[in-house]
Amino acid sequence: MRQRIDQLENMVKRLIAHQPQIPQEPASLTPENPKLGNLNPSDTQDVASAGKIVLDGAHSVYQGGDDWYDVLEEIDKLKNTWNQAQDDRREHRIPPPQSQLADGSSLLFGQVKPIDRIEILATLPPKREMDNLVAIFFDRPSFPIAVPPIIHEPTFMWEYHEHCKNPSQANFIWLGLIFSILGIVMLAYHQHGEPPEYEGLSESLFQLYRIRTAQCLLSGDIAKCLPYTVETLRFNATAELNRKDDNRRGLWIMTGVLVRTAINMGYHRDPAHSSPPIPPLQAEYRRRIWLAVISMDNMTSFGAGLPRMLSAICSDTREPRNLHDWELPANAAMDLPPARPLREPTPVTYLIVKGRLCHAIGRVADLTCNSTPSSYADVLATDRILSEAYDSFPPHMQPPTPPAAAPPQPQEQLRLSYAQIGLWSIYHRAMCTLHRRFLAPAKTNPHYRLSRDRCLASARALLAAQRDLSEQWYRFAHTRQTLTFAAMVFFLELELIRKFPGSEDAVEQPDLLQDLETSVALWEVNRDTCDEAGRQWQVLAGMLESVRTCPGAKGGDSAGDSVGGGGGGGGDGVEAASADHASGLGLWGPPSQMPVVDDFTFEKELATVEIDWAAWDSYIEDAGFESGPIY
């Protein structure tokens, strides 16, 4: 019987493969159209012919516009009925042991030890403790990690209380969701301060809950389109994104799984195409989820310097409205109210603002990953999109201005400003990435002066912000990468000034050196926060010493004009940067006080330090250096 079913399925698949090609989709369904929210009814009707979202109460599946897929669905149901007894027995069978690698993308590819439901449930904390952790997660104003608002709290809490009444009835995907929530809370404790009851435990619990989340996703099968599948994957990506180590490539791979799962469940199509119609409350949450998914795709591609998936995806899902949850009607017959202006904060405001910025940095990623050189007009167009996204930040999303008096306590500072500073730094790093390749051409062609000015201004802003960062920030890989990236831009500009001594930019050399010296001084102060920070400081200090002793350098020791040196003169460089850290540094004395860096150890450090070498290689290739110091 099973062979007959398989034979019938293969026949249908061959018919699908030999059918005429589907006509090209209408122009209204274009990849990443920023104005899709303005589709008129006729456009929507045309788009709907491409496929539909099918909801049956327990699944959300995207179905293409082809009747043969209905036949395949019936065959699949027949197979499921025939194999029900085998599936029931297989559910209670102990799986074979597998490798227990549990880091990055390996979590989603079977590289974790399988586990049964009893052991999964036994890992959950006691109800009283879990109640408190869940409440902390949904306390958005004070929760230190910016988690996308993609879970409807009242619905989840009802399901949570039902789970507590009968834990054995929860499916694996829902259990994965609760473990992902617990993991994010433990990550917040570990990074932003542990309460006494979790002192010394939060990191190990975070790792345990990460593994449990992955095991639940594997056991629940993300291809089955069960509720909360995409949400659980997205929260898992949030935890990976906020880790302190450098996991850019692994996160990029994981995001590919996330995007494909969302497409498989139809999130790339606006809920208007669903069958049956989706209530406004659920429809808005689907739009939020899709925006959170594509924002992650843009961020991870930009951070890893690798192509994104969104540029090849035809999506017409509208941007979610800036509304409070209590404004979303659950009745399908009711309409959504108009969106509030972004200056009125709601739980979804940050997601919308970040989504628009991520759309812009996704364009930057496209330009840097393009196999064919982009025109300068494309660069300027992307610059405008990036600037418009940044200028549209509402006042409460602008990065806080550090007070002139004593700074706030580190934990309070992180809690209040982490999200805003994160958006601000993404913008400036994107500006540097977009325009860095034109630093060298700008020396001989005034046409590229705008790019040179944009790039240096953003790099200077990032290094200036370093002065106000507490030591906790140096523990995050993306902070170290961003600050090092900005320093590399300055090092390149100094080398270009040396190669073109007659350029008008030579007058900026002392200021560039002073900014770098201040930055390296702050790296030294915070070098013990983690091993990577110490390696970063050694490399940057060695590069700075090479620049200062290079013939023609102005402002360094070799010119007899040490900026911020121990002898007085320009000694206010470090003090202006950080009055608390300036005294006793002794870094800008004689060269002998700099780290001893010989050729062998310097090369060793460069091999392990967190530097965007793809960007640096691009600098060197564009500059065309024939001689001079090798950094």
Automatic annotation (TrEMBL):
Gly residues: compositionally biased ranges: 554-573
The protein's name: Xylanolytic transcriptional activator regulatory domain-containing protein
Record flagged with keyword Transport: no
PANTHER family according to UniProt: HEME-RESPONSIVE ZINC FINGER TRANSCRIPTION FACTOR HAP1
Organism: Aspergillus uvarum CBS 121591
Keywords: DNA-binding, Membrane, Metal-binding, Nucleus, Transcription, Transcription regulation, Transmembrane, Transmembrane helix, Zinc
GO MF: DNA-binding transcription activator activity, RNA polymerase II-specific; RNA polymerase II cis-regulatory region sequence-specific DNA binding; zinc ion binding
Transmembrane segments: 172-189
InterPro entries: Fungal_TF_Env_Response (IPR051430), XnlR_reg_dom (IPR007219)
Ranges for domain Xylanolytic transcriptional activator regulatory: 251-326
GO CC, any one term: nucleus
